[in-house]
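Thread: "does anyone have the structure for this chain?"

Original post by V.I.:
We have the sequence but no experimental structure in hand. Need at least a predicted one for the grant figures.
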Amino acid sequence: MRLRALAAEGLLTATRLYLVRHGQVADGHTDIYNGHNDVALSAAGLRQCEALAAHLRQTPLTGIYSSDLTRTRQGADIIAQGRSLTVAEIPAFREINFGVWEGLSFREIMERYPEELQQRFNDLANFRIPGGESLQDLHDRVMPKLAELLQCHAGQAFLVVAHAGINRVILSQAMGLHLQYIFHLDQAYAGLNIIDYYPDLAVVRLLNGIFYPSPDKSGDQENRPLH
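Reply from O.Q.:
Generated one for you, tokens below.
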């Protein structure tokens, strides 16, 4: 496409999204599917966000956003320090609603809801967790709001601190991946993704970049697929 060629030649200005996952959550919650549960960051999670903030210190931003859950707002506030920007909370960027599974570990879900879990394995994109959301529901909640931000910040750079599920949906859309395959994308605590949006395509410049020492890279339950 001609627009692709123009982008490659640097003749089009991209709208750049810095997409961040929140840091490690408070001790005692790392094996739990938190979803809409509001938990804070652990000391390690705060350090992870501080390291990312240091990496981004010289990066110009025209807006900083988070979900309305504490774990993302804390990270966004750290990144906003020293900038003349106020973090705006966007409820649409909450993590997927795990419904009756919220607050449970994967083992507990397997024991209490084996049939429902198998149904989810069979149709990862469309199965709606009892009392919660499907990945398609999540997509339909997130993408219209992202489109608004992209229009608002056209030709500029902005940052969103969100959740593993949210980030995977956004990245999948940018990469043309079906929702069935979103767990092929890793999202570590305080991981950074960079996406450039042009009129006819999105280009993922960085996927799951980590800017803190390896001991804090340990995964968590919500970052693992439910299969």
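V.I.: this helps a lot. DSSP finds seven helices and six strands in the chain.
O.Q.: and The longest strand covers residues 202-209.
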